[in-house]
Amino acid sequence: MKVGLTGGIASGKSTVSKYLKELGAVIIDADKIAHSLMEPKKILWKRVVKEFGKEILLSNGTIDRKKLGGIIFNDSKAKKRLDKTTHPIIIAKIEEEMERLSKENDILIVDVPLLIEIDMIDFFDEVWLVYVDKDVQIKRLMTRDQIDYQKAIAKINSQMPLIKKKEYADRIINNNGTEEELKFEVIRVWQKISDIESEFK
36 labelled as ligand-binding? Predict the structure, then answer.
């Protein structure tokens, strides 16, 4: 079974991914794949630098993510250019990893923050959404990033709302409570899916 795990900024998806790994899940992390492809002289690095110029580079040759993030956050056309440049390559690499790891593992969890936005739903047997109410999301983002309310709202509003993502999810992992409650919820979902998978062996 291939599971797509997604969420939103400050929803707790990384924590869920960590708990799943502790339970023995095999995780493919889309962000890690993207970061590795963005290392100096790698394919994505070359394409992004070609698209946005050498002014986005730090002195050591790595891409200044903060600077690039600032460019695309304030310019929707620049964001589309970045997405068009990077997404097909990242998706192809995720597919490659899924193909490789699915041969040896009954359940594969693929952690993709923009799973719905980049139209990867059909890659998976199930989509799991880590969900939080917007007011909780705002508070957690303000605390995590040490930013004010307006900046938190702007960041959250730049993404697809979690309430909208719910429409695409097969399972909802609710993270409105404590970390302990979240861990219990992850264990419950993992056990359920493991039992289902065992039945088909």
Answer: no
